[in-house]
Amino acid sequence: MVGGGPAGLAAALEAARAGLTVHLYDERPILGGPTYGRAAESKLLAKLEAAGSRGVLHQRATIWGIFEQRTLAVWEGERAESLRPEAVVLATGAHDRAVPVPGWTLPGVTNAEAIRSLLDARALPPGQRVLVAGTGPLLPAVTSRLVCEGAHVVAVLDAAPSRRMPRVSPTSWARWPLSGDATADWHTLRAARVPLVGSRAVARAVGDPSVRKVVTVALDEDWRLVRGSEETFEVAAVCFAWGAVPSVQLSQMCGAEHQYVAERGGWVPRVSAEIYMETTVPGIFSAGDGGGLGGAAMAVLEGRVAGIVAAARLGALSPGAARSRLRPHQSALAPLRKSRDVLGRLSTMRPGLAELITPDTVIPVRGHYGGTG
Ligand SMILES: Cc1cc2nc3c(=O)[nH]c(=O)nc-3n(C[C@H](O)[C@H](O)[C@H](O)COP(=O)(O)OP(=O)(O)OC[C@H]3O[C@@H](n4cnc5c(N)ncnc54)[C@H](O)[C@@H]3O)c2cc1C
Asked: Which atom of ligand 1 is nearest to the CA of 290?
């Protein structure tokens, strides 16, 4: 298993339960992925540890390459080695989409993933004025975390038109999370009276030495800037949440076929009949956000399917036993997939967004996106 987020842990659990020896690699020091460290520890990780010697966990271990015949290159501790497992599940997740605007490299401008570090490091004292901007399901998740930590969220700007949200959103958003937390996020936003503004984005961040204000603009149907619609907010921090781009480096490197699916964030591996999570390279599976941002519940289900099918392919489960283990996961996946696609369509990038990138926008060649991230 490459990746110890919800998808990789669930895949490992099913494969170990079927009697396979499973090695799970994650480059982070804590398993559970960037978002679900704690949840994974209390739920999936305990179950995996109970699988005893069949589950071998490798933390701080990066799979940096994948070559012919499922040969994986691993960098673990101070050691480099290569492995040739009989089956591989790629559960590498997704990374934040960056939309550069003038001033986005200023300290105080950050992204959805980095905001956690900012809050954990207490770099954002309570009461600070924060503006959240972007689109998609991460907007309420990030904003509610900020509100709960005592930030004063001056507004949430969604590039998508807000008038479409009330009709489609509640069911889809509520289905997205692991345990109903998206609904709780919306309640938090409503209770804190955070203004939610549709068809609007940050055009530039201004300040010296750190961000002090942002200039926002209205967007038309194609997300092109509407001239004369500028509005300025005084802020101490800005958090961009533009959704996620699937991390497909390894699936591309192993030669699997990919397809461009805009509502899933870009290029994703083609998986055979989707429900089986196997890429076009036999024995290599893909599960979780690496196939498009779907939320933790979906990542767990896809991971389970990949783990069971891998076990069946290797003869650890009979076809009948695999079918009966797969059935509940496949039926639970169907509505979540529908939900993901609805949300994905609502927040698919429109071409006008590129107009935010002006000739004076700094694009760092190396280093972190977001000054304080
Ligand atoms: C700010 C934020 C808030 C969110 N809130 C919610 C929410 O409220 N509800 C919800 O359902 N979802 C939420 N999500 C989304 C949720 O976190 C993901 O959908 C889910 O974690 C996907 O699981 P995954 O296992 O596919 O990937 P991830 O959890 O991203 O895990 C991927 C793992 O793979 C590892 N990895 C990647 N490449 C390699 C490599 N080459 N070698 C070794 N290890 C590697 C990474 O270190 C990482 O641990 C949120 C996401 C963010 C960023």
From this structure: 26
